[in-house]
Amino acid sequence: MSDDLEQSFVQQLKANQNIIHKICRLYTNGEDAHKDLFQEITIQLWKAFPKFRGDSKFSTWAYRVALNTAITLYRKSTRSVKTIDYESQQYFISNEDYNYEEEERLKLMYKAVYQLNDIEKALVYMYLEDKDYGEISETLGISEVNARVKMNRIKGKLKKILNP
């Protein structure tokens, strides 16, 4: 692949890496699992990047790829994922900017969200990112009305979990 394509990918990924970190946090417990999932999502984004046509924003496309990767990997009971050597890539995207201490303050909420099913987790995540229901429905492949109904039900579930 061309250097321009690689540079474009790295630039977009750096600008949107918090999307990946937040998805990793929702679908993993612990720093090692977080790093593993971050790496796998980055690899899947890189593999799919040449097919990215720009019909939607990069962030919307990255959400979809990241969510699909997280859901696919963590639905499996065994985690035997074939990956490429991440360190050998010319451009290394570090996750040093991610603040694990700040994450601790959100521990209760994450714990509650972690109890939700995969689609509910994705919906909550995008909702908390102030995505409108149009973008949420496009990313998750559901209708806008369905996204609104699901979100209202999820809010009720979270209230029960956080305030038993």
TrEMBL record:
Top-level division of the source organism's lineage: Bacteria
GO BP, sorted A to Z: DNA-templated transcription initiation
The keyword Transcription is assigned to this record: yes
Pfam families linked: Sigma70_r2 (PF04542), Sigma70_r4_2 (PF08281)
Residues covered by the RNA polymerase sigma factor 70 region 4 type domain: 110-158
Family: Belongs to the sigma-70 factor family. ECF subfamily.
Identification of the protein by name: Sigma-70 family RNA polymerase sigma factor
Taxonomic classification: Bacteria, Pseudomonadati, Bacteroidota, Flavobacteriia, Flavobacteriales
